[in-house]
Amino acid sequence: MGKELRLMKGNEAFAEAVIRDGADGYFGYPITPQSEVMEYLMVEKPYEKTGMVVLQAESEVAAINMLYGGAGCGKKVLTSSSSPGMSLMQEGISYLAGSELPCIIMDAMRGGPGLGTIQPGQADYFQVTKGGGHGDYRLIVLAPASVQEMYDFVEISFDLAFKYRNPVIVLTDGAIGQMMEKVYIGEQKVRLTEEEIKEKYPWATLGKTPDRERNIITSLDLDPYRHERHNIKLQKKYKEIEKNEVRYEEINCDDADYIIVAYGTSARISQKSMDIAREKGIKVGIFRPISLWPFPKKALRQLSERVKGILAVEMSAGQMVEDIRMHAVESTPVEHYGRMGGVIPTPNEIVDVIENTFVKS
Amino acid sequence: MSDTITKEQIFKPENIVYKKTDLMTDNVLSYCPGCGHGTAHRILMEVIDEMGLQSKTIGIAPVGCSVLAYEFMNVDMQQAAHGRAPALATAIKRLLPDKTVFSYQGDGDLAAIGTAETIHACNRGENFTVIFVNNGIYGMTGGQMAPTTLEGMKSSTSPYGRDPQSMGHPLKMTELVAQLPGTYYVTRQAVHTPAAVRKAKKAIRKAIELQQQKVGMTFVEVVSNCNSGWKMTPVDSNKWMVENMFPFYPLGDIKVDGKLVKEV
Q: Do the Cβ atoms of A203 and A215 come closer than 8 Å?
């Protein structure tokens, strides 16, 4: 954790982290509730400080394909958007996954479907964890629940993206993006030179030199058997990610009778619910998946063995709850409580649900 | 036998009168015999070779007949989603301003699904080169109507000829982008005769040279035939192209040194 302390919005902290981590390029299109990311970058002029490129694209479609071009050259590139913009990017994300290109895509989810609303939502869990675009691919999905995590997850995400040559989604919403909290800022990292990129990422298209064959970035292979081998290789990589990159937080789970499973904004609200419930003598704990994919299935299963009930709290009609049900032991009841269309649940609502569903029954 | 030369003599460097540039790979071209793509590929690669730019060049292949351009061009390449080549090229050139970057796109890719990317990259004056091969048809998918298909021209999705009342008018993208302040050199060429090939190569050379000066977008359209899609012999298709395509898509420079040299 850095030493410099600031009061920042989540979106601003994310943007500052991008500069400090030595990113090479941001390409984006304005959309509420995350437009502060590009605004902050444009004000800060990182191109004068670190040489980082900041470009407002003509659409989310162009932005995600700019990521493809930049990532194909081994550059640290990212974009940020919100639900409708994410839908537009799905083709590009599928290409990025198919061509195994590293990048960060921040998604500040809002209530849907369609243009929906600009208020916070968590109804795009399926889109980011189960697909969204075409083909068999997976995205690493991290869900910050504080402004500090909005900052910290940039470095983690770039590291994961390059370690596995895979897009990483930072899945958040307007509540985390707009709220202000104190945040510790890290040191300014130096951007990689072209020579360093060549050394670290020999696959990058930086110009064919006599010492190697030409580099090609493509997701196309018209030979089905060769293309199946490529798919098998991808699946092997995803297995590796599932083994190594599970992240979660357990709060007061040791003595808990009931567990709330929630991520991001819902997890923050649920902490208050937990406090209220414990004051009433109901032992509630929180299991917070940080990596939504890979989902912390093993830890959740173990936890489910020793509690009386699990409540999934999501700002959706119930999406993550499907993963919970799939991995929790059958003897433990799993219920869902959600608000939709941009409505945020209150801590007391959640306590009521726990009391009515588990305690009184 | 004294006036014939042996195989060994032919191979001697001093006896070589023509050879394929090393920047074209030995892979067998996927294009139909008679198609203009192969020639367009070759002159582009010859220019990169002659200018000594192989180690600095990054090319973008589109979706369409030339989707496999990276199999034939011996430079680092990326294959883009349909229509998005100018977005890739924009980012690459911005992140690596001293590289030579080109997109190689067909008419469906550039003038239909990728219209927004094309117009905006041109309007921002991105410093890369677009090679736009216009044959008035979707070749790879089997000869459907393209944005550049001529009025009355038959295709598999305009089997009775393109009716502009219901199917829209052929789009002159090159004239369109020439009007944007971000474009610096805009020209229309062809590769159907040796003279046209020489001219087209000169135009591509000029575009790549200008790119080194970072003056803005350089845009070279190559009007080509599609004998398979047009359902003609190669010779007939070239004749048809001269008689029908060229009057609507006239050859020559449209914008030079940032100034229109032709009424558009």
A: yes
